[in-house]
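Support request from a user on the community tier.

User writes: "When I paste my structure tokens into the form, the page sometimes reloads and wipes my input. The last time it worked, I copied everything first. Here is what I submitted, just in case something in the input itself triggers the reload:"
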């Protein structure tokens, strides 16, 4: 029998060793996710230093998140097949190299290319780390707590990124937000080699090149169309062709993937209403939050004239709430289920979008910070229930796939949030002041709508009928372990 088909899960580790593995995985998710938000506060400095356009700034963020979203499925299934620790170490090395090249970039084009390389490494860290966590903690209750901690780290990294980024930009320049990753990555590689056991799925999933190409085609054409729509216009033949390609790509995935024995995109998982709702809620929540981050860091620096550090400190309430609420929410999900946290998250995101409509160049800063609290509540209460819903009930052999799909939802939401919000405010960025805050209104209406979407899905996905669909979907994978 091929060794790739053998059950090679990690041995039963002691509690201290398991917690150490969890800490290493959490460190990896922190640097990967933080590099989504940390760069936002550096965008004004990058624009001035590299003479970048608004679309260049959008691609600085989206080149990273687009590659993450496009290759996460491949990374998760590859790690299940050839070894999670091995892929995890390769990912750390690629992420560290990409970070170093970002810090040395002489132009916006080089920076965007280096960000893409950085993201290639990130794809091997995000879902693979969760799969390592899931297989390291065999006890279901302990696994749920560990997954809750891991999911909370993702939200924490997003919230604290702008604060750390502001301090680094003001103290050492924008390049420091990238080279600071290098020593962290080196330490993680060493610790992974020493303490993380190797593991594989019981049954290896074969590579799906057609499915992978279709995923990249859909995401790439959609994001490119959104970012370039301001310059070319929505009725441009190029934009219309890109949108048509995206639609045809989705059709191709729906037609091709169910016919494969080992599809890249396991569509049967979406027969579970809680699982499919979790993916949509991840997309909605992260789209709204990253639209908020993209326009807010520019509003604080370009409209209100704050320094990068001061702008980051203005987002401190967001980070503090994530730190406080994430672990509490994880315990609440374990005790009472995901409904209440999801209702709170959706409501807070919707209210944050609506309240932001009143922001202007001269809005008192205490009022601005009070509104930002709503976004902290939203992110602090949405990640643990989404993560738990996406992974719970899945067989161990599907851990990489389930984790990858949850991460794809997050990264796709992040990518679309930056692309859409950037397109909405691009024309007013150079004018600043009241023109920028008026352009922001369309972004805030979008965020409010996304919050309502999270609220509705949170209610729908936690009812009895939804639970029945999850039970029926689980039977499709019986014997997978």
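"...and here is what came back when it finally went through:"
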């Amino acid at each position: 029998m091929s060794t790739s088909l053998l059950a090679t899960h990690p041995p039963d580790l002691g509690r201290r060793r398991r917690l150490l593995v969890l800490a290493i995985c959490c460190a990896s998710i922190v640097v990967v996710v933080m590099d989504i938000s940390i760069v936002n506060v550096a965008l004004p400095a990058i624009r001035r230093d590299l003479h970048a356009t608004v679309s260049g700034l959008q691609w600085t963020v989206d080149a990273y998140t687009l590659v993450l979203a496009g290759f996460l499925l491949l990374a998760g299934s590859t790690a299940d097949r050839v070894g999670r620790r091995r892929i995890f170490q390769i990912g750390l090395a690629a992420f560290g190299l990409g970070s170093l090249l970002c810090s040395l970039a002489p132009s916006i084009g080089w920076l965007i290319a280096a960000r893409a390389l950085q993201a290639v490494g990130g794809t091997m860290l995000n879902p693979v780390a969760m799969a390592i966590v899931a297989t390291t903690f065999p006890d279901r209750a302990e696994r749920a707590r560990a997954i809750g901690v891991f999911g909370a780290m993702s939200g924490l990294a997003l919230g604290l990124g702008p604060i750390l980024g502001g301090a680094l930009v003001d103290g050492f320049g924008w390049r420091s937000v990238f080279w600071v990753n290098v020593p962290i990555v080196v330490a993680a590689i060493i610790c992974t080699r020493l303490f993380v056991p190797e593991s594989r799925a019981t049954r290896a999933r074969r590579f799906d090149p057609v499915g992978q190409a279709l995923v990249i085609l859909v995401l790439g054409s959609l994001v490119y169309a959104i970012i370039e729509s301001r310059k070319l216009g929505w009725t441009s033949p190029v934009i219309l062709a890109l949108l048509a390609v995206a639609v045809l790509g989705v059709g191709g995935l729906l037609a091709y993937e169910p016919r494969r024995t080992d599809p890249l995109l396991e569509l049967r998982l979406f027969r579970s209403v809680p699982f499919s709702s979790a993916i949509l809620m991840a997309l909605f929540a992260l789209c709204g939050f990253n639209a908020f981050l993209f326009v807010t860091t520019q509003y604080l620096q370009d409209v209100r004239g704050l320094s990068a550090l001061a702008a980051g400190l203005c987002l401190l309430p967001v980070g503090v709430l994530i730190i406080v609420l994430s672990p509490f929410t994880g315990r609440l999900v374990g005790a009472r289920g995901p409904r209440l946290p999801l209702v709170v998250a959706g409501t807070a995101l919707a209210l944050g979008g609506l309240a932001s409509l009143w922001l202007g160049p001269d809005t008192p800063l205490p009022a601005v910070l009070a509104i930002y609290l709503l976004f902290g509540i939203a992110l602090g209460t949405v990640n643990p229930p989404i993560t738990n819903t996406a992974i719970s009930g899945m067989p161990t052999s599907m851990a990489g796939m389930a984790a990858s799909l949850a991460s794809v939802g997050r990264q796709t939401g992040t990518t679309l949030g930056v692309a859409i919000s950037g397109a909405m405010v691009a024309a007013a960025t150079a004018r600043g002041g009241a023109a920028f805050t008026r352009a922001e209104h369309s972004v805030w209406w979008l965020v409010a709508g996304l919050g309502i979407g999270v609220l509705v899905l949170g209610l729908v996905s936690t009812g009895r009928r939804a639970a029945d669909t999850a039970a029926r979907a689980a039977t499709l994978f019986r014997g997978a372990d």
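Agent notes: The reload is a front-end session timeout and is unrelated to the input. Residues 1-7 have pLDDT under 50 and may be disordered. The two ends are 17 Å apart (CA to CA). Escalated to web team.
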